[in-house]
Amino acid sequence: MAREKGGFWVGLAATMFYPLGWLTGRQRYQGREHLPATGGALLVSNHVSYLDPLHTSLFVHSAGRVPRFLAKNSLWKVPVLGPILRGSGQIPVFRDTADAQQSLAAGTRALADGKIVVIYPEGTITRDPAGWPMHSRTGVARLALASDVPVVPMVHWGTREVYDHYGKRFRPLPRTDLVLRAGDPVDLSGYRGRPLDATVLREVTDLIMSRVRDLLAEVREETAPTEFYRRSPEREAG
């Protein structure tokens, strides 16, 4: 398998992340064939644990690609992690500021440059007690419609059993099966070329996240809820 070149910082991250991934669970990868071998793609995932980015990184990297995450800008201030994020071309998100649109512009450029961009549209770890995806921000729709690239749904399941932030529990042993599954790209042909008004952005966001939710239902072998969980108060980026 030809591997996308990532440079020094991606190589450094890989030497750290693969052992950490092994220590925090047994990865069960499914659907990596849905990630294109070359060219841009938007990878859209649920978010149930702070371990998710680690395992998303390994899922994408093991497929021969380099992930570019949209992640909150405060992570760039973390020692060791900050230089890796900068050096590997990750994309800081400045929420609720005048710089917020810069994140979407940077994500669009990365997709146009043939990169795989990863986004967790919920904006944070789900607050749904049962771990289903929440009502999501519409930035994912802006990215998806601004770039004619595959929009690939993906899910994690099992990471919260290892590290539950809200439950304040970290339990790496015994090692847990972690399922990461990607699905067929979402067909957005009916929306392309339409004005990006609030209605279209909300419809596309919900369509993409419905595919993520359905994929998670398959992994969990359960029936998904028909409505997305909403936080209170609701804070949603337009």
Could you write a compact summary of the structure shown?
The protein has 238 residues and is α/β, with parallel strands linked by helices. 34% of the residues lie in helices and 17% in strands. It has one domain: Glycerol-3-phosphate (1)-acyltransferase, CATH 3.40.1130.10.
- How far apart the termini lie comes to 40 Å
- Poorly predicted spans: 234-238
CATH homologous superfamily annotation: Glycerol-3-phosphate (1)-acyltransferase
Structural class by secondary-structure content: alpha/beta
The shape is globular
Question: Which percent range fits the helix content?
Answer: 25-40%
**Amount of beta strand:** 15-25%
Number of domains: 1
Strand order of the largest sheet: 1-9-6-2-5-3-4
Radius of gyration: 17 Å
CATH topology heading: Glycerol-3-phosphate (1)-acyltransferase
Number of H- or I-type helical stretches: 7
Largest sheet, if any?
Answer: 7 strands, mixed
- Residue-averaged pLDDT, rounded? 92
Please trace the helix and strand order, writing H or E for each element.
HEEHEHEHEHEHEEEH
The CATH architecture category equals: 3-Layer(aba) Sandwich
Total number of strands: 9
The level-1 CATH class = Alpha Beta
